[in-house]
Specification:
Helices cover 11% and strands 36% of the residues. The protein has one helix and eleven strands. A hairpin with an 8-residue loop joins strand 7 (128-132) and strand 8.
Length: 177
């Protein structure tokens, strides 16, 4: 009898507390840093972002930087920045990936694979995602996508890569390993 009362009263309370222990509360904005205007990053259209644990930095891709050469004459399209957004550690121009320089190469998404130590970048104009080291100068592996590679995520538990691929009539997620 007592155990039923305990379960009926305390069990919902334990579930409520458990949710807060897991961080399932409100999300609060901590800060904002601009990627344009007076910013140290000259990016008008940041498309992808990933955290790189070995360096503790963010890597941000810009898919449209090549269309505004008057603002970014060096046309870099990957930015390595601090978590505060106040320091740029390096910039990269990925337009010559795979040995062919094309102004229209647009890196849309980026993720870091902590299992193999490589970055994976989607490029919607080339209809691929590719593996690159931290120099971003060459592609180590190109993987063709069906239509329009827009974003990519890495799952460290399975080693899978999830690519958001627009197919003209909608969006699909393609899983790679």
């Amino acid at each position: 009898m007592h155990s039923h009362r305990f379960t009926r009263i305390l069990l919902p309370l334990l579930f409520t507390l458990n949710a807060s222990w897991l961080g399932a509360g409100d999300i609060t904005q901590v800060r904002v840093f601009n990627t344009w205007a007076d910013s140290i990053i000259k990016s008008t259209d940041p498309a992808g972002i990933t955290y790189h644990a070995p360096s503790g930095h963010l890597f941000i891709t810009d898919s449209e930087i090549n269309e505004i050469a008057e603002y970014a004459p060096d046309s870099v399209n990957v930015f390595e920045v601090s978590l505060l957004g106040d320091t740029v550690f390096a910039t990269y121009d990925t337009r010559s990936i795979s040995g062919s320089y094309r102004p229209s190469h647009e890196p849309t998404g980026i993720t870091y694979n902590s299992l193999d130590g490589y970055f994976y970048i989607t490029n919607d104009n080339r209809k691929v995602f590719y593996r690159s080291d931290t120099t971003f100068g060459t592609s180590i592996l190109d993987v063709p996508t069906v239509q329009d590679a827009e974003g990519i995520a890495f799952d460290p538990n399975t080693g899978n890569l999830y690519v958001a691929d627009g197919n003209g009539g909608g969006m699909k997620i393609v899983v790679y390993n």
